[in-house]
Design brief:
Order of helices and strands: HEHEHEHEHEHEHEHHHEH
Structural class: alpha/beta
Number of strands: 8
Strand content: 15-25%
Number of domains: 1
CATH architecture: Alpha-Beta Barrel
CATH topology: TIM Barrel
Shape: globular
CATH class: Alpha Beta
Number of helices: 11
């Protein structure tokens, strides 16, 4: 089902990543999440931004009953690389992708010159296929962007190139999300914005996320980080309140960054469905 059709009403979705080892544990976690009827599963590239060409993993996830939205990055890909991957995606009946620039590789010799920004990838995909295209949005601005105004201008380029839906980076302060929505609307962008939610599991997780991206830590969360070693229960409660508030305020959808684990996401969904 195309993204525009999915988000004609509220929907939930989950993100997973290709495991480094055996896929068995991932499939067990996905079977647990399947009972929550997600619209689809998004599948990231492997760490470091390299293209995940394992179409077998996509097929395996499809075989347990999920619709899939693979991620596509372009900074280390040529046009021929992307075109080959697009053909592979269409051959296994995938109709949606998330188009990203991707992380800049440590080895700059891996950078290709065909694509420099995600809007160029979106435009290329739109010209070559009938795929439904999602792009990323950053409620507090991309870490490489000097300010939110510049970041919204970059988002507008992706939307004008042919994006159908925006999925946000994770955030812990709903006020930042609502401010982002206002900035987006003021820029004349009208496509759905889907809120990215990551349950807090550990201090290590939060420290890693905030080192890689612009993510504010609200006072209540900071206090918990300072006071507790086991954050899983707190994280479930915190994200439940986030989701309740977002739903109350008419969010188009929730996209859960599961970290390949079902427990916290399942508990949150149990809570918001009561």
């Amino acid at each position: 089902m195309k993204l525009k059709e999915i988000y004609s009403q509220f929907a939930i979705s989950f993100e997973v990543f290709p495991p480094k080892a055996e896929n068995k544990n991932l499939f067990e976690e996905l079977k647990t999440l399947k009972s929550y009827n997600p619209a689809f599963i998004s599948l990231t590239y492997s760490a470091g931004g390299s293209n995940n060409k394992s179409f077998e993993l996509i097929k395996d996830i499809k075989n347990i009953g999920f619709d899939i939205m693979p991620h596509f990055t372009c900074i280390s890909s040529s046009k021929s690389d992307v075109e080959d991957n697009l053909k592979g995606i269409e051959e296994i009946n995938i109709d949606k992708i998330l188009a990203l620039r991707g992380d800049i590789p440590d080895d700059i010799t891996l950078i290709k010159q065909d694509f420099h920004y995600a809007n160029e990838l979106v435009n290329f995909i739109r010209e070559k296929t009938d795929l439904s295209i999602a792009v990323a949005g950053y409620p507090e601005g991309h870490i490489e962007s000097p300010d939110i105004k510049t970041d919204i201008e970059n988002l507008k380029r992706k939307v004008d190139a042919g994006a159908d839906v925006i999925f946000t980076q994770l955030f812990f302060d709903n006020g930042k999300f609502y401010d982002f929505q206002e900035h987006v609307q003021n820029a004349g962008i009208t496509i759905p914005i889907i809120a990215g939610i990551m349950p807090v599991i550990s201090k290590k997780q939060i420290n890693k996320m905030t080192s890689l991206a612009k993510i504010s830590i609200p006072a209540k969360l900071q206090t918990a980080l300072d006071d507790y070693d086991d954050l899983k229960s707190f994280g479930i409660d915190f994200a439940t309140k986030q989701c309740d508030d977002l739903i109350k305020n008419g969010v188009c959808g929730l996209h859960f960054y599961t970290l390949n684990k079902s427990y916290s996401t399942a508990k949150i969904l149990d809570n918001i469905r009561r």
